[in-house]
Structures are given as C-alpha cells and as structure tokens.
Sequence to fold (593 residues):
Amino acid sequence: MNNRILTLLLIISALSVTALLARNGNLAWMALPFLIYLGLGIAQSPDARKLRLKAKRLAELDRGERMATIEVCVTLTNQGTTIDRLSLSDPLLPGMILTEGAKLTQEAALEAGEETLFRYTFQAERGHFNWESVRVVVSDPFGLIETGLDIPAEAEVEVQPDLNRYRPFPLRQQRTRHWPGSIPARLGGSGTDFWGVREYHPGDSLRRLDWRKMARHRGQFFTKEFEQEEIVDIGLILDARLKTDMRIGDESLFEHSARATASLAEVFLRQGNRVSLLIFGEPRINVFPGYGKVQLNRILRTLAQVTPQPASGFDSLQQVPIQMFSSHSLILIVSPLAANDWMLFPRLRAYGYQLLLISPDPIDYVRHLLEKDAVTQLSSRLAGLERRLEIAKIAKLWVPVIDWKVSQPLSPLVRNILSQPHILRQS
Amino acid sequence: MPQRRIIQIACIAASAASLAAGFAMADLWLGVGMVAAAALSWLGSRGRIFRGMNSSVLVFSTGLAAIGLLLGAGPIWMILGATFALSGWDLALFDRSLAVALPDHSTRRLETRHLRSLALALVSGALAAIAGPVIHFQIPLGGMMALVLLALFGIDRVWRGLSINK
Fold:
C-alpha cells in the first residue's frame, strides 16, 4: 500500500467519521469523489497474472580521455494485455555519475505487443557494472495499486582504469630471472652491450673472438662477452583499504593509486617483465605472476572491479601475504600509509626483496578543501608530521620512498629512483 | 508548458475559487483567508519544500472544505472545492513522475489516458456528490441486505486483488 492510498483512506475515513459524529450528510457526500477515484483506480489496476513483459538491455562503452561514457538502453516489450501506466527503473550503481538530464526512471503506457525504450547515459572513471534485471512497476492510471516486477535484462560493462603511457624505465636489478628480456642482468652472455673479455672456451663462436687482445698475447685466445638481457620479477601491491582512501565528491585518492598501479603494470609488462599484483583490501585479490598482454588484461580487469571497502578484521599492511612474490623480486607498494604500516617493510627486507614505496599524499590531496582556521591548520600539520614520521621509519630501512603529490606526474619520480641502481641495491 | 501542468494550475485555481466563494457567501471571511493560504501552499508544493507536501496540502484543503460545511457554507461549493483539490493533487504527483520524460508519443498517450481516467472519476464523483443530497428513495430491507452482501463481496474482491498484486 503506497502513500497515495493511505492519504485517500485517511481523508475518506476522516470525512465519514466526522459525518457520523456531526450527523451531517453533506460531509459523507463529500467523500464520494474520493471513493470513486479510489474505486476506479482499483478497478483499473492490472492483473499480475496477465502481465507478460520481456526486456533486452544493451550497454555501450565509449572510452574518453579520462572518463568512460556508458549508454544503457533497455527495450521493454509488452506481450500481454494493455498496461495503462508503468515505470521502469535501474539502481544507481557505485561509481556511476549520471550525465546531465539523465534519470534512472521512466514512465510509459504500453499497448499489447508494443515496446518502449528506456535510455540513460552515465560516466565512470573505473568499475565493473553488471545488471541482471530491470525493475518494472505496473500500476493503474493513478498509480494507486502498484505491482513490482524484476524483468531479466542482463548486461555487463567493464571500465578499466585509464592508463598513462610511461616510457620504459631503466631497471637495474640485482637479480633477474634467467629468461631473455630487456633488463641488463649483470652477467656476461649474449647481449648487445659490451661486458668484458675472458679466455676462449671450446665452443665459443669465432665471431666473438677478441682479435686485438689475441694480437697482444701471442698463443692465447680471448672471447668478448656481452651483458645478458633478462627479465625481472616485479610485484605490485595496491593498498585498497577504506581507511587510507580520501573522497572528494566523485573523486577519490584511490583512483589515483589504481591508475598509477595500472600504468606501472602496463609499462613493466611492455618491457617484457613478469608482473604480479596483490590488492590489499577487503577482499584480498591476487593476480599471480605472468607476462604479456594477457597478464595486462588480467590486471586491468582486476583493478576495474576494486573498490575500497571497510576492513572486517586484520587491516594493517603487516598482514600482506608475500608468498606469491618470488624471492629477490622488485616490489612496488602503492599506499597512502596508515599508522604502523611501516612494520611491513622490515619483513620484506628480511626476505630479500627490493622495495619501492609510492605513497600518494592524502593531506596534500585534501589541502585545498581545508579551512584556514588555526585548529584545522594545526590538525593538518600534525597529520603531516605523523605521515612524515611513518615515511622516515621506512626510509631508515633503506627503502626508497616516493612521497607522491597526486597532482604531479608520477613517471619522472619513479624513473629517478629506478635509474639510480645503488638506491635499490642498498635496499 | 505541458497540458497536464496547465490543467493542474486550473484545478488548483478552481478549488481555491470554489472554496472562497462558498466561504464568502456564508460571510466566513476567515475561511477566505485560509483558502488563500491553501492556494499559496499549493504553489509552494511545486517547489517541494518537504516530502509529502502535496498530500498535506490536499488534507488541508479537504479539511477546510469540511469545516466550511460544518459552519454552514454552501455544500456544492465545498464539494467542488474538495474535488478540484483532489484533481490538483493527482496532477501534481503525475507531473512529478513525468518531470524529465521527453514529450514523445508514449508520454503523450500516458498523459491522455491519465487525464481521461481522472476526468471520468472526478466528474462522476462530483456529480454524484452534488446530486446525491437531492435524490431521495426508499430501499426495502431485503434490497438493503442484498446491497450489504454485494458491498462485502466487493471488498473481498478488492482485498484479493490487492493480495495478488503484492
């Protein structure tokens, strides 16, 4: 029973009771138009057993520069009797930003065999949108007696994070995997860059003989060696805890982290490396190590579906399961950091991983929204100090840290760290 | 401006005019002032100051008409005022549900059907209410019993219909 019926029943009963108490027949007659209105509505209400509705949904994705535009079109066909009034509606899913003028409900009247179109457009930065049905409410012309139905109309759209195409990073890893790749492996072999000269071993190619050295040392043979180029194992850890996220309207700090992680995964995979991803949030999601475009697609699909959720139990970075990362791999952690998160890093160091922390600055992200009064300024300074202290604890472990203000491009900062191999080597 | 909105404004004006005329004829000038307040509330309900404002204004207008009847205002004016208020309320809610609908064929048909049903309900209701007090006839006891049974049967059907729809 909806509010309209309740209002009418209230008026009818109030008029009837007052008419009886005041013994005034005119008051009872006044209730008659309300009664006839209500009666006509009930008489014209559709029979739920005779409703035959069929829906088909189409969702089209148009990838823009930063936001994707999705057009949803639901075609509803009436295969039963005439419907005087129906309302179609879809829920507002998380991550949907409706375009101007778009509405998630539509009213229509349908003759038997006729169809109606329910269309709306929304934008999304990232996300997985899945519809199983469309909500249809059929009613009499006055909307008094309503029958709600969920008509199956399935569709799925995935908006992967927007990628920043970074130039390849000059990685100089201590340990590489012994598979041909593009990263200098600090080992003599069959690469392109000169590595050194050693004594000739039977089986060495004659083309690699060092004729100049042989001329200086009569009776001895020397072979030129080149630096082997191999691949690197890279692990990405993305912090998806709700407590480290910051939201400003439709934007959030996590979106920057997700986009950075996707862009890093893309550039590392493009360089031919083996990349894995761990999303630390609720639930924890692993993408096991892999190569190439298939792995990139796997990572982007995973990132498209992640939303920061409140933690149900252990939510400190200390609980990160690191077994999935092979030993001595390079691990990049993208996290705004919370209190005591630094305790993860000694453990990672003990296992021999090379580490790089990229920490989006939440205080800088919201700074323009902060009020200028003394209390707010002091609180923001204190939060900044707390964060700096956390970063200092991590830096003390010789872990390179990028204190990333998300308005700045990330690529030069990462390049700067990765092109200084001694920094990573110390870690 | 869509047709439904023009009719809605006309209904609200007619409701206010009927009630004001009824009160004025009975020399109830305070009632005329209250009618002016009700008319202003109807205009305010277009801005939707709070949820359920339309329903509150309908209850207020009908209450005003009932008070007018009790104080001796003309019954025809009061019944007409309440009936027009009911149509104004219905059209206000209908207009809200079609607020962003494009004026296409489907919307026009929905609007036409709604207006037709509303006209049927309110014209017949108002005529019956106005004509009712002047028609006098006697029903024998047996006929009355049959009518009561019919009404009970009708209520049962309505209840069953509501249960199925749920």
Summary: Chain A touches chain B through 50 residues (CB under 8 Å). The CA atoms of residues 209 and 370 of chain A lie 68 Å apart.
